[in-house]
Amino acid sequence: MARRGGRRRLGLLACGTLLLAGCGSAEPDRSAAAPTEPGPTATRSFAPGAAGVGDSYFPSYGNGGYDVANYTIKVRYDPETDKLTGTTTVRATATADLSAFNLDLAGLTVRSVTVDGAAARHARTDDELVVTPATGLTSGNGFVTEIRYDGRPAALRTEALGEGGWLHTTDGAIALGQPESASTWFPVNDHPSDKATYDVEVTVPKGLTAVSNGVPKGKSTAGDWTTWRWAEGSPMASYLSMVAIGKFRVTTAEHKGRPVFSAVAAQLPEGGAPDRSIARTVEVADYLESIFGPYPFDAYGGVVVADDRIRYALETQARPVYAASFFRRGDNTDVVAHELAHQWYGDSVSIQRWQDIWLNEGLATYAEWLWAEHSGSSTVQRTFEQTYAAASGLVWRTPPGKPGVENLFGRSVYERGAMTVHALRLAVGDTAFFTVLKTWAAERKNGNATTADFVAVAERVSGKKLDKLFDAWLFGTERPPAPKVK
User: Fold this and answer.
1) Residue 140 pLDDT more than 80?
2) What is the CATH number of the domain that holds 392?
3) Domain that holds residue 257
4) What Enzyme Commission number(s) does the record list for this chain (predicted)?
5) For the chain, which terminal residue's Cβ has fewer other Cβ atoms within 10 angstroms, N or C?
6) Does residue 344 form part of some domain?
7) Cα-atom radius of gyration of the chain, to the nearest Å?
């Protein structure tokens, strides 16, 4: 996630304010996992799954007792009435013997729920959908849940992080936000620790475009409605899902055998800075690939939206979303580099818990510094020195490895996170450092990880003990001494 648009510059580091807060029934399909042989019924003890994954920062986010393999989401949205009608099919595997389980769903009305084709009882508790299947779900077995729902989707608001989720716009809607947004338009296990693949169909009035994640799978029109189809075949954290509906200027191409699909809000001047900047997406991605290793997904692209409520960029998987405000001062490939770096760090390698968000933002900010050096506008060392000198007391008092919910997207996570990365580079040398980056991306591809995992990789690759370095830069509350250039 990048800072809000409208940057003042420190070298090429953006220093603006952060966003506090980027159908039909199916036969049972148990392909999500091979069935296990159940023991005698009498020895089973079925219980409800937890209403949360236990993340200390957001205890109610996500749900326990199952692991999702795939979401098939089919929604129809009418901007004129702001009504959404949907059917979402969730293919998952039970990780405990479940008598009931929860899904996150905000605001919408549930009309019916089935589990493995049989009607299931359902109830709502705040933003939770509680599903009680006709029979218990045995640990290790796959199951399929289908939920039909409708209503007027609404944004989510939290005191510390602001607004995210489904936003009705003048010509459509945008579903976007971090740390949560998905639950405003489909039922979901809404935590990055449970990644899944996605198949999305969005039906909208003819003449509008509906953009989502991954590979475009075509569109079809029937009467006054057009259905746009998308597939993200790599595991994706739920907050990285997105939909943008409206009038867009669409550009398509192919690069290295992958589709490139970009869309710019039609009300923005054609050929302007937004078009020019995201047209360089594959150029920037190829440069980052030379540093981080192979690009991790099956599609490229970007979306530029023109809505004053969105003043940030978000690394939505395979198709980042950028606020138009990032391009008001002209071309801006810095933010493109930031969001594309997230495709490796944040999207392919995802955090296991929200406390470790610096792993995403510190590495993505450092990618901006690398891109600035590559493009000849600054050097990484100069940007580090300027950032170090200008960092406020709050940056040093807030440990990026444990920022707290109130500072989850604060300057320390971005700036001190990037400075931590540079301190590591100076400590281990360029050869080991760039090997660490590629190893991290390769070994953790499509998975989740923690700060401790990153430290372990850095120590293994470099052959050095690095606990003091990471303790000072990630967890200390005072300014560490500036590392010396060797």
Assistant:
1) yes
2) 1.10.390.10
3) 31-333
4) 3.4.11.2
5) C
6) no
7) 22
